[in-house]
Amino acid sequence: MLLFGALGKHLTKETIAMDEMGKELLAVDVFAMSIKFMADDLMAVVNQRLTGIIMETDIHWVLTVPAIWSDPAKQFMRLAAIKAGIGTERLTIVLEPEAASLYCRHLPVDTTICDGSLTISEFPTGSKYIVLDAGGGTIDITVHEVQSQFTLREVRAANGGDWGGTMVDKAFENFLIDIVGETVFDTFKHSETVDWLHLSRDFELKKQTAGTQSNGNVFMHFPVSLIDLFETEQERKITIKDAIVASKYSKTVELKRDRLKISHSTVEKLFEDSIQQIVKHVQTLVKKERMADVKAVLMVGGYSESPLLQRAIKSALPGIHILIPQEASSAVLRGALIFGHNPMTITERILKYTYGIKTNLPFEEGKHPESKRRKTDAGDHCDNVFDKLIEKGLSVTPGETQVKRQYSTGNKKQTRLYFDIFISEENTPTYVDDKGCTKIGTIQIDFKEPDDLPGRAVNLTMLLGGSEIIVELEDEKTGNKVINTTEFWG
After folding, report:
1. DSSP state of 431
2. Which CATH architecture has domain 351-483?
3. Which pLDDT tens digit goes with each residue over 179-210?
């Protein structure tokens, strides 16, 4: 969730991640170590099972990320993978709802709708459906349209929010705090960490089955260490049983020795906030123009296996088919394999942002603010102008150049030309320091032999249809090129 945030959130190589105990480590190292562990584990297993040796260089790696992440967050993952020892030329970043969608296009999908006969693979060309990818952290929502048997186009830019399964975990933490108090709970987490992890995992199992029955109770092991901590804090004035009786859960929660009995209605209440946010967002999306002919919602991701979420989506969208593959939690993984073999399965994407570069223009009295006036060898210029390259909302095709521009140096003997690349949620920003503009990277080209006069031409091209952006600079005089070296750490 560290990588999901506002567009302007500053993400750098120095960004710190904090663990449950408050200890800190560089975020890029945490991600790199996680990726390296999985890559090393895979290599060990593959070489045990196969005759002959598979080299790491024989493998093309596919790393999946939520579609609602920003470009800097995707670039951050690429950097972490490189740090883990995966060569950038052997790495593809894939958007999770697209991967899940592809998997479901390739296989018949057992659905939970009453006729049981509808599958995504049978959708005719032009059919639109929503992909709801519900994970632990983010809820990722995209709208796809069938192009041909195995290709798709994106109809709406990815959207969603941080309403995933961890929101339910947080509600469970708050439930425990209501019973034992914040001080006791924090002490328990820090001093009895193993018991806390066991309790969390026990809740994870109960979470997956919540909603399968509406009456009766859920039983959970309640750690003795937590009972002792509570009663020590209270100096034995009140037992934990008495505290539960005195709380708002007196009629729905009971402690018998070290077993906690919780009514189903109380457990379901823990899901309320998360589910309401998801349902509200999906309902708003369906009401929008171009969504009238949406045929179905495809639910994937681990949280989509929750009967409570499934029921809520079904009742919120009457008349729309709800499809859930049998292995919803691994649909992204399986789809990523398909994408790795055939990246051209997505034929069109919608731009989420307007892209531009910081430039300067000849200063115009009365039009440009005095604060942005800069003197150059080519005369006075207005600084920090947002030069729009391409506008948000446009459809772009992977592998095609969408932007081609020419720029030139403004000073004599200039040794390099660099470009600060910005994105904005506005359609037409004026200046790069306007509200809503965020710098996502810098790319530069060096001149081994600078010219005596300003005006050295450089061509900039940009490909935006893939899951990552590719930028190329070409020195027109020498033909020297710099490709795909945008460092998103401005």
Report:
1. B
2. Sandwich (2.60)
3. 999 999 999 999 999 999 999 999 988 887 88
